[in-house]
Give the backbone structure.
Amino acid sequence: MPTLPNFKLERYFAQYEFKVRYLLSASDCEAVSVADLLALADADSRARWQRLSLGYTESQGDPALRAAIAATYTAVQPADVVVLVPEEGIYLAMRTLLEPGQHVIAIAPAYQSLSEIASAIGCAVSPWPVTLTPSGWALDLDQLEALVRPETRVLVINFPHNPTGLLPSRAFLDALLAFARRHDLIVFSDEMYRGLELDPAARLPAMADLYDRAVSLSGLSKSYAAPGLRLGWLATRLPGLVDRLVAYKDYTTICHSAPSEVLGLIALRAGQHLLDRNLALIRANAALAAAFFAQHPALFRWLPPQAGSIAFPQYLGPEPVDAFCQSVLDAEGLLIVPGRLFNTAGPHFRVGLGRANFPQALEHLDAYLARR
Ligand SMILES: Cc1ncc(COP(=O)(O)O)c(C=O)c1O
């Protein structure tokens, strides 16, 4: 496989994330502390934590953890789950599903690895664009139909969507599923932000529950406020795929970290509490953001997300959005991610709504604008 190009967003964060004072564009929710997490533990998981020894763990993932993960699905069973690092899940899935010369359709813009690994393997990748319409962000199924080729193998989707916060309707998802069945496609569904729907009734089923040729990616980094655990999973009912994923994992991490598995079990068992906490933060911050951007109609068009912890508003100011983000960074130590890092040409920037200090980040943006 040729060398992978730099992951633009991750390199940008690597440069600034731990140096700047505030992040306006973080995608995760305010991280939960170990002390707060342990306070949520039930008797069984607390005992697991206390007697934990730091040995190697089962390659596929601890059975109790896989049972807790499977409990978040309807059709997926513990045997259909592989525990891994979320980003590793994208890599392993692409490496096990794809061969050079195959074709992939991938939602765009998107988290870069969702298309980049397929390209590096030697697959042709067609972007399926999320476009801005008068009523907000949207995808078009006719456009999708026009992209399919005889050699198309995988369709990559991501709902709730990073970076736009798009969440399609159930009817749209059913039509997409019918399309995938018709063309016998495998669907790779990144569901890292699932559970953060602003209207919980709009939550979509996991693809791995709906379709036996789907792979769902999820994890604790976003919706469950525990990115430092580096814990995620793939869920799939595709025959033989779990074994292939586990075998490939021998070349990446072999098995997951033991403390992280137990803390992850605690987080999942307290899952609803964490989702409620994060959704409350997102709702409050989204209201603040809407009011803030409405005060500057000549500079911003706020595009409220339907789900997830992220929005992708438009910058309407005179200079390129990149220059705006850099200038805010230089003046206020406030990090704003420009759309360029998602390979978009449009004048967008990412806003992260999951952090507790979002109001202070907005105050810094306000101070910057007042001085312009
Ligand atoms: C859509 C999406 N998928 C996957 C990941 C990878 O998650 P992690 O960084 O926890 O490995 C991210 C992280 O930002 C993401 O936004």
In short: The chain has 14 helices and 16 strands. Residues 8-33+272-371 form a domain with the Aspartate Aminotransferase, domain 1 fold (CATH 3.90.1150.10). The chain has a mean pLDDT of 97. The pocket of pyridoxal-5'-phosphate is lined by residues 27, 85-87, 111, 158, 162, 190, 192, 219, 221, 227 (CB under 6 Å).
